[in-house]
Write a structure and sequence with these properties.
The protein is mostly helical. The chain contains 21 helices and no strands. Helix 4 packs across helix 7.
Length: 490
């Protein structure tokens, strides 16, 4: 009996590359239920709480990415040492700039090596006609997210926007905070570090609001996204094998899947942080309500779009250097954003098209502003925007550029609404879940605030019944394996 218990504990504590730690996994919630009482006991003991959360965050990352936790630790230590040198009395401006250069070179160099080395080598090989053998590289989970936090921290310290942390432990807390570590939201030092220093306890209302967000996140990810992904995967894994109608349903399905998957993760991350007494910035604000591409990027992955604005677009000149330069800066920023998402030409194309869309919208704004603000105009604007976004998601999801083109072409082949009755009969639950998310997205934004407030104020038995119902839905609709979050690969 004892050896079996020891074996199970060892399995629980060891890294399994085939089953990385996920918010939607039972392992995480089992560990979190152990974590929270201990965290509550240590909450008033500042340094003990810091050590405990940092240790759990590093363990969480170890369970997600194995030995690469050492890379996270080394990055945090180097950043902290350099940030202290930057603000040390008597440090020359040249030395400060050297510290920034060393930090950026180290952080971005590691990211480029793991994420883009094979992409660059493959393209060089294609140009010179060599016999390229790809490097055996495994991308550390979430490296893009914590690298962006590292970059913004060192730049903000250099520019005097934020004071560096007094100790490495406090900085490690910021960089490795487990709710946001592997898939965001991207946390900014000037917003989060003061919260660490305040050491504020979560109110009862915040705890229940956090639980509400976790429940919404689980519904989006583990119920809706994971279920509708089963059909979407059939379409994207066999380009051209299905009718135009079925292919279009797969494209629309993936459009909803990626929103539910990523916003669901963000809801869970924000909710878990709020239960612990920390506020993370909103990451999604009903992006598919957008009437233009500019509005879409104000509502989609807000922490990334604001990071790109503040650390790429504005330093390039923003809108301060004339109209043409503004368009170029928009395009370049989104091109970098596309490359951030993945080392492939399809991601670069995806970013370039969004950059072009932003430029076209800004150029057309004087004419668009003269159009009447009525239902018809708003409906047409929405339809153009969502169609543009959905078509570009094909390049985001498909395995290759050629697959993307084939899937889009397939929509125009053999397209007929006559397929709908048979499709509805075979995919009734898929359609129901799609309708649920469309209706939920179309509700007035204040509706969800009111629903959250009602949940917070409801009796504990109501909260328990809602929680049990959600767990039952997850159990009923779950797939054989817990599906990883889409943005884990970035």
């Amino acid at each position: 009996m004892l050896p079996l218990v020891i074996e199970r504990i060892h399995a629980l504590l060891s890294y399994d590359p085939s089953a990385p730690m996920l918010f939607s996994s039972g392992t995480f919630w089992a560990l979190f239920l152990i974590f929270m009482p201990l965290y509550g006991l240590l909450r008033s003991r500042y340094w003990q709480m810091i050590v405990f959360v940092v240790a759990f965050s590093f363990f969480f990352y170890y369970k997600s990415s194995g030995v690469f936790v050492l890379l996270l630790a080394a990055t945090s230590l180097l950043d902290w040492i350099l940030s202290r040198i930057i603000v040390r009395h008597g440090t020359s401006r040249g030395t400060q700039r050297l510290c920034v250069a060393v930090s950026l070179t180290a952080s971005l160099g590691i990211l480029v090596y793991f994420k883009y080395a094979n992409f660059f080598l493959w393209n060089i090989n294609a140009l010179v006609g060599g016999n390229f053998q790809p490097l055996d590289l495994v991308l550390p989970v979430g490296i893009s997210f914590y690298t962006f936090q590292s970059v913004s921290y060192i730049i903000d310290v250099y520019k005097g926007r934020v004071a560096p942390t007094r100790t490495w432990l406090e900085y490690a807390f910021f960089l490795s905070f487990f709710p946001a570590l592997v898939a965001g939201p991207i946390v900014r030092a000037d917003y989060f570090i003061p919260q660490i220093r305040d050491n504020r306890h979560a109110s009862r209302s915040e705890v229940y609001t956090g639980l509400w967000l976790v429940i919404l996140g689980v519904l989006k990810k583990a119920v809706i996204a994971d279920y509708i992904a089963q059909y979407n995967d059939l379409i994207f894994d066999a380009p051209g094998a299905y009718s135009g109608f079925e292919t279009l349903m797969g494209i629309i399905g993936y459009t909803m899947q990626i929103y539910c998957d990523f916003s669901g993760y963000s809801d869970m991350a924000i909710g878990i942080a709020l239960i612990m007494g920390f506020r993370l910035a909103q990451n999604f604000n009903f992006p598919y309500k957008s009437g233009n591409v500019t509005e879409f990027w104000r509502r989609w992955h807000i922490s990334l779009s604001t990071w790109l604005r503040d650390y790429i677009y504005i330093p390039l000149g923003g809108n301060r250097k004339g109209t043409a330069r503004t368009y170029i800066n928009n395009f370049a920023t989104m091109l970098i954003g596309g490359l951030w998402h993945g080392a492939a030409w399809k991601f670069i194309f995806w970013g370039a098209m969004h950059g072009g869309g932003l430029a076209v919208h800004k150029a057309s704004k004087p004419w668009l502003d003269r159009l009447p603000d009525n239902y018809v105009v708003r409906a047409i604007s929405w339809l153009i925007t969502i169609s543009f976004v959905a078509v570009l998601w094909v390049f985001f999801r498909a395995a290759s550029w050629s697959d993307s083109v084939e899937i889009i072409r397939s929509v125009g082949r053999d397209f007929s609404l006559a397929y709908f009755p048979a499709f509805a009969s075979a995919r009734m639950l898929w359609l129901i879940l799609m309708i649920v998310i469309v209706v939920a997205h179309a509700m007035p934004e204040g509706f969800w605030n009111k629903a959250g407030n009602l949940f917070v104020k409801s009796p504990w038995i109501v909260k328990l019944l809602i929680f049990i119902a959600v767990v039952q839905l997850v159990l009923e609709l779950r797939t054989a394996d817990v599906a990883p979050f889409i943005y884990f690969q970035f």
